[in-house]
Amino acid sequence: MTRQMSGAKMIVQALIDQGVDTVFGYPGGAVLPIYDEVFQQNAIRHILVRHEQGAVHAAEGYARATGKPGVVLVTSGPGATNAVTGLTDALMDSIPIVVLTGQVPTFMIGSDAFQEADTVGITRPCTKHNWLVKETDRLAGTIHEAFHVATRGRPGPVLVDIPKDVQFATGTYEPPKPSNSRYQPKLKGDMEMITNLVEAIEKAKKPIFYTGGGVINSGPAASQLLRELVDATGFPITSTLMGLGCYPASGDKWIGMLGMHGLYEANMAMHDCDLMINIGARFDDRITGRLDAFSPKSTKAHIDIDPSSINKVIKTDIPIVGDVAHVLEDILKVWKSRGRKTNAEALGKWWQQIEEWKTVNCLQFSQVGKTIKPQHAIARLEALTKGYDRYICTEVGQHQMWAAQYLGFE
């Protein structure tokens, strides 16, 4: 149902129609009309931050905790540029956030007006997509499209830049129509490639599942399907930092995190495998190390919803573009229909080798004297909280690596 309203009111109505209940922001002159509308309603809670970077990081945390896109409201110029760090972080970690920025009036754009910045140009490299809205009638549709783009495909940050005169002007509001969007990521994988992967699974002597944040982003169904596939095939599974928890650390097929801060057995298995099944990971440099020496003898399959991630770093033999949950579902169907075959004898020898690597016990440390080592502190934290419904939050750095190594994510 279309209605006439101001651009500022249109923004708040669009957020309500998108199911937004929380906005993180910091007011400024170029967004005061929006703040006036926020003040006059009770459906959306506004969290006042002390710096725009904090607003974006808070929105990231909200998105991770709830599964819903985080929303940010900041002013023009310095308000928008202060958001760049959070936008870049969200882009790298595939976190859906929608940032609304104020802009100087349309007739002043390009005149070096007070607190003017080329927000669209500045944020183009650190957003999934961004828009500058110059017509109030286009405002509601653009915001709805922003939510669609942020949450579909590989999640990520988007930004809508809104001049002040567009906020004041009256326009026609239209409710969301996601089916009208031109952005429709491919969800189902190519069945020929899926069949090729199943054939490789049936013959593999030294297979490994290499999983990443894409499994988490795909939702609970993806993790459940992954656990079913791993347990049914009996293949070992490792994970990046972003993928921890997609398969339980207590599972008997789990061989730990891999990469430069990962476990010896996981890295050795990745190097020596003959079939690597990458599910939702990016072949990050923290995992691969030297590209010319990375898993040199393996057939590599890569499942990812983002086509630009495939063959970007490592050449892939079996590329599958699609949503992890959809692709895993089809892999299981095809594999089961063909008789649930694996090379059991070779797989047994492969596990013997992995168990031999595990005896190195690469995370072992000695706790002597009165000084408590950080590893010991986190290992004790794991032992004392293991059975609880716990929430673990880290910053970035060495302590994060110790948390990944000594805490078991289920």
Layout of helices and strands:
Layout: E1 3-6, H1 7-17, E2 22-26, H2 32-39, E3 45-48, H3 52-66, E4 70-74, H4 78-81, H5 84-93, E5 97-103, H6 119-123, E6 129-132, H7 139-151, E7 157-163, H8 164-168, E8 170-173, H9 191-203, E9 207-211, H10 213-218, H11 220-233, E10 237-239, E11 254-257, H12 264-272, E12 275-279, H13 285-288, E13 299-304, E14 318-321, H14 324-337, H15 344-358, H16 374-385, H17 398-406
Parallel strand pairs: 2-3, 2-4, 4-5, 5-7, 6-7, 9-10, 9-12, 10-11, 12-13, 13-14
Antiparallel strand pairs: 1-8
Helix pairs in contact: 1-2, 1-7, 3-5, 9-14, 11-14, 12-15, 16-17
What is the straight-line distance between the termini?
Answer: 45 Å
Helix content: 40-55%
User: How do the strands of the widest beta sheet line up side by side?
Assistant: 3-2-4-5-7-6
Task: Profile the largest sheet.
Answer: 6 strands, parallel
* Average residue pLDDT: 95
Number of separate strands:
14
Derived structural class: alpha/beta
Q: Helix segment count?
A: 17
Radius of gyration: 24 Å
Overall spatial form: globular
- Runs with pLDDT <50, length 5+? none
| Beta-strand percentage range | 15-25%
